[in-house]
Amino acid sequence: MTAPRKVAAVVTTFQGGGSLRLHLERIVEQVEVVVIVDDSGDPSREAAIDFTGLEKAIFLRNEANLGIAAALNRGIAQAGAMGCDWIITLDDDTLVSRTYLDDVFQFVQTGAQPRAGLIACSREGSEPSAMDDASGYKIKRTLITSGCVFEFRTFQEIGGFDEGLFIDLVDFDFCTRLRQSGRSLVLLNKPGMAHRVGSARTVRLVGLAIVVYHHAPFRLYYQMRNVFLFARKHLAFDPVLSLYLLLDALRLPLKALFFEQQKRARFFYLGTGLLDGLRGRGGRLTRRFAESS
């Protein structure tokens, strides 16, 4: 990796809440430009976001809901067209520290991982393990997209995010392709962001701790389908991760059966996702559950 020059933040949103303004203020102080990509397909969304005083922020709206991968690709392409050679990707519910990029680029300048494809600070509340104390970082198999810093040329070389996956496992796929190209994924020990992952709770089934996220029923379609699409692409390179993810074919129905509501809708989407996953069908969900059925 080379020394930092011009950095853009790409923030994806889908009807982001009232905290979005605060999150934008925090990152706009650290970058050349903030590219906000709204993927709701709602024409009124731009008016709902307060851009007052955020001269470095630009807003892009997808005409329809195209998925997180398409939103990221569009935002990053815009940043590259504006001459930015470094990118930080953020969800609308992620709040970074005031020194986030300083911390990342301080690590870059050490040259400790010259082939780093992604670098991120830890989430607040996470505890570093003993093996990380000496180096100050650890090499990961995967990282969530939000908070990752990378070079624009890396994005180009890898081919961007896979829009066929639409939403779930988009980050895992990107990370796996980076590793396959010989790049490493670096997680710094220093906490630098607050990020929540849905409305999760931990339950127990036959003595095992299971995290239930209570996503909308349609998300189960992508969660079920994409484990098969991921395995098709990456089983030969990373069979351990692929087989672990394929266990969702069992985990997801068990969660829906024992711990979640709207069971008929959930099993409709699970079944549809299973069939499309086995067929290798990607893209946006086209078949919806009929409440009257």
Task: Write the topology of this structure.
Layout: E1 7-13, H1 20-28, E2 33-38, H2 45-48, E3 57-61, H3 68-81, E4 86-91, E5 94-96, H4 100-110, E6 116-123, E7 137-140, E8 148-151, H5 152-158, H6 170-180, E9 184-195, E10 201-205, E11 208-212, H7 219-234, H8 239-246, H9 248-259, H10 263-279
Parallel strand pairs: 1-2, 1-4, 2-3, 6-9
Antiparallel strand pairs: 4-8, 5-9, 7-9, 10-11
Structural key phrases:
single chain, 293 residues, alpha/beta, Spore Coat Polysaccharide Biosynthesis Protein SpsA, Chain A, five-stranded mixed β-sheet, 11 strands, globular
Task: Give a description of the structure.
This protein is α/β, with parallel strands linked by helices. The protein folds into two domains: 7-194, Alpha-Beta Complex (Spore Coat Polysaccharide Biosynthesis Protein SpsA, Chain A); 201-279, no CATH class. Helix content is 37%, strand content 22%. The chain is built from ten helices and eleven strands. The protein has helices at 20-28, 45-48, 68-81, 100-110, 152-158, 170-180, 219-234, 239-246, 248-259, 263-279; strands spanning 7-13, 33-38, 57-61, 86-91, 94-96, 116-123, 137-140, 148-151, 184-195, 201-205, 208-212. The strands form three sheets. It has a five-stranded mixed β-sheet with strand order 3-2-1-4-8, sandwiched between helices. Strands 5, 6, 7 and 9 form a four-stranded mixed β-sheet that branches. A two-stranded antiparallel sheet has the order 10-11. β2, α2 (45-48) and β3 form a beta-alpha-beta unit.
